[in-house]
Amino acid sequence: MLQEKVVPKNKKKNKIVLAYSGGLDTSIILKWLQENYKSEIIAYTADIGQKMNKNKIIKNAKRLGVKNIIIEDLKNTFVKDYVFPMIRGHALYEGIYLLGTSIARPLIAKRQIAIAKKFKAFAVSHGATGKGNDQVRFELGYYYFGPKIKVIAPWRIWKLKSRTDLIKYAKKNKIPIPKDKKGAPPFSVDDNLYHTSTEGKVLEDPKKQAPEYIYQRTVSPEKAPNKPFYVAIGFKRGDPVSVNNKKLSPAKLLHKLNIVAGKNGIGRADLVENRFIGIKSRGVYETPGGTLLMIAHRSIESVSLDKQTMHKKDEIMPKYAELVYNGFWYSKARFKLQKIIDSKKNQVNGLVKLKIYKGNITIVSRQSKNNAYSIKKVSFEENKSFKRSKVEKFISGAARKLRA
Questions:
Q1: Which residues form the catalytic set?
Q2: In this structure, which topology does domain 196-367 adopt according to CATH?
Q3: Contact predicate 138/108, CB 8 Å
Q4: pLDDT by residue (tens digit) across 90-123?
Q5: Nearest CA to 299 among 362, 238, 366?
Q6: CA angle 332-321-187, nearest 5°?
Q7: Phi/psi zone of residue 209: left (φ > 0), alpha (ψ -120 to 50 degrees), beta?
Q8: Topology at the third CATH level for domain 12-191
Q9: For the chain, what are the domain ranges?
Q10: pTM for the full model?
């Protein structure tokens, strides 16, 4: 993507919609946009379950002169229309990452463009860094929904090249600088209802262990309760609908599972991943409820779907996960794979019971009214539902393929 030129200060533009968290980075970006683009800034915050203080967001934006501050509650939409489709696809990037940050950007981008069109803004802006994946995820969403709307990516065009530069700029412009639990400038953290990611500082050295204090929604397995906890997750048409026989909205269901799993040390991942733009980075992820859902969903499918369907899903999953990771949520390729994934979701109904204990998950039981699993066929007791005479022909056919 080409770098754009900063608009001269004497050339007035109309409005810019900024994806605004209220934190250090986006507050600096807000100020920088005001200085370099003579435009009204619309601060847009999507509430997708992240830890947030609405009053602080509003206060920080107003301190910087913003008059139009929009905060949208998108938690149910985020879980139902973005997280749940990934759960149905069992999406894991490089075998570990449950794509918590990746899946949040398409929704935010979609709503930013909608806001921009509503207020006739000429541009949208985000706070993703020039080395990260999020710039791609945001901008592919922008181009899908608003190809004619200008994109301003400060990290690719300003003179601030490091975290140190940002802190100096913040001090100069009297922008509050948050502190981590050790009293230093914070790690780079992204969170939503599905996960929390932490990057930067000591984590940039893969030889060093992640400090315990960075974890926000999971306890260490060593400090988890000494008694196992049982949780039953009900599924209907491929999606979770209940926890311990209580029906819940998508957002409340995931929130509930985050609590019970986090208390029992479930959902931590420390990954050195291959970014889309070609560099490696280390991230520490916490996805407690999502980890339970992923295991429970595979379990309910094992008794409700046929072998061919399940194996086809396993075959396409790496490509599906890579598309999501790289920002192609709205691509024809992802839509096509989602159609395959969901082709028989109507059959995925039932109940899965899990035991969680000190970071471990054990499947206790699976119940489904679908007849993909037959006790009669697998029983060691003699029955007429399985013809042993057919096995020899089956092996002969397999042998011919072996020689082909």
A1: 25, 105, 134, 188
A2: Argininosuccinate synthetase, chain A, domain 2 (3.90.1260)
A3: yes
A4: 999 999 999 999 999 999 999 999 999 999 999 9
A5: 366
A6: 120
A7: beta
A8: Rossmann fold (3.40.50)
A9: 12-191, 196-367
A10: 0.89
